[in-house]
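Mods, move this if it's the wrong board.
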Amino acid sequence: MAILRRIAGLVFVTLASLAPASAQEYPSRQVRMIVPFGAGGPADVYARAIAQHLTDQFKQPFIIENRPGAGSIIGTDAVAKSPPDGYTLLVMSNTHTTNESLVASKPFSLMRDFVPVAPLNYSDLIMVVHPAVPAKDLKEFIELAKKDPGKLNYASSGTGTPYHMAGELFKAMSGTDIQHVPHKASGEARNAVMGGHVQMMFDAITTMSQNVAAGQVKALGTTGTKRSELTPNVPTIAEAGVPGYEATIWLGVMAPAGTPQPIVERLNAEINKIIARVDVKEAWAKQGAVPMAMSPAEFDKYLRADIEKWAKVVSSANIKPN
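Not the wrong board. Structure tokens:
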């Protein structure tokens, strides 16, 4: 028995001594960052920026692989089934924390099958309508929606996404009945609104503000607690007619459960270095995004709190997946 204990102790010491070394050698080959959303959306845009910086820092390629579908579930499940070796990472958002209570039939559980690495940033959303919608401001839009319940539609990039939840929260707080039209990706939803096939959507201000400036859509409100510097003439939804309304989109990185902690810690440290850079902060500020720096433990706590927050919203607003 003593011999077995001695052998077990030697194995433990050996493995413990190898872990830091493996983290120092990591990465020794290409790393995939799977974005479970379509190309062109905020998750894709910021993931590519982070991937380029990580490539420069680690001297190994960090490549982006878009796997949209089912409100992020398809791409996320692919990461959950990947080896926990640090060579497959998930770029995630509050879609994932919402889906924990909204979608019961997922093939994974976020906090069981993944480990938090680091958050990236957050930004406000903007509510836009097609120019043909006969409402010049938010109050007129609400009046229009109440006049014809169920006849207006709003687009999103899928069930559980921040765009979907922002729409459901708006319906609940404004007392309106607007039909949800989910799409496979945010680009498809955006095109549906600009093409006049769907009347309204909530979109990341980092992406949609340029379409507002071009006159392709009409902005009725932003979702933060104060007006965005990107659209200073657009009121917040709270000040325009729905007091207390607030919604944002945030992004982060996770890895499959079982990924060695030294690798997680190293990725966290490098990502935090990137988002602390002056040039990155300035570039993101121009796009309406604010960096979020946390340790893996802090991000874990943040994720659990966000899951609980959206579970209450889903329950109180009786939100159902499409």
